[in-house]
Write a structure and sequence with these properties.
With 234 residues, the protein is α/β, with parallel strands linked by helices. The chain contains eight helices and twelve strands. Helices cover 39% and strands 21% of the residues.
Length: 234
């Protein structure tokens, strides 16, 4: 499968030149000019790597890094015109994998992209530490590419579907309230009448449950919230 790279850069000329170069190297590349466009794209087409300009209007690159790192292990390389050591340190602390100062040599960036994608691939094979892929029933939960895989099919997850499933599978056997799930997703100050989490759980059940009306994995705990069954306890 061709690896997907998303460029988040508000300078159209720079973005198009970088995208064209990476496409020549065989990558599948999407172009966005701000965080809103990027988030909309990732809902439907997850990426292996983000190339993010640090100095964007609205949400800047540091904010994007923090939010995306909370959701997944997607590779993140920050791009900036400023040679500011403080920005570099803050970006890496927030979860960026690498940092390149403009103007940069395209071949150097290509090497960094290639090496980071190899490291991301190795994460999925790592025998120690928190595994990026969870197994339950017939499914493997691929946290890097945000999808569910069985022998018969693959189900791609939207951004919020991934976030909800991650929150629940990170806490198997624990009942999480809607408020707690919203907090883990960074959705602060939602109204009590907001039923977004209920809708997303319903969509997830249709994807993973043999009978969505009688779920085996995503259980409703009436009056409290949702619980993901601990596979070790089954």
């Amino acid at each position: 499968m061709t690896q997907h790279i998303v460029i988040v850069e508000d300078d159209r000329v720079s973005r198009m030149r970088l995208a064209g170069y990476l496409r020549q190297l065989g990558y599948r590349v999407s172009e966005t000019e701000d965080a809103e466009q990027m988030e909309h794209l990732l809902e439907y087409d997850p990426a292996e790597l983000l190339l993010v300009d640090i100095n964007l209007d609205g949400k800047d690159g540091l904010t994007i890094t923090r939010e995306q790192r909370a959701l997944s292990k997607v590779g993140i390389i920050l791009l900036t015109a400023r040679d500011d050591q403080v920005d570099k340190i803050v970006g890496l602390e927030m979860g960026a994998d690498d940092y390149v100062t403009k103007p940069f040599d395209k071949r150097e960036l290509a090497a960094r992209v290639k090496n980071l994608l190899i490291r991301i691939g190795d994460i999925g094979q790592a025998p120690e530490g928190a595994p990026p892929i969870d197994t339950f029933g017939p499914w493997r939960f691929d946290r890097i590419r945000r999808r569910l895989i069985s022998q018969s099919r693959t189900e791609t997850l939207t951004g919020i579907e991934f976030g909800v499933l991650k929150a629940l599978t990170d806490n198997p056997g624990v009942t999480l309230s809607r408020v707690r799930i919203d907090e883990l997703l960074g959705r602060q100050h939602t109204r009590a009448s907001d039923r977004t989490i209920d809708v997303v759980v319903g969509r997830l059940r249709k994807k993973i449950e043999e009978d969505p009306t009688n779920p085996d994995w995503l259980l409703t705990v009436h009056g409290k919230g949702y619980r993901f069954v601990d596979p070790e306890a089954v």
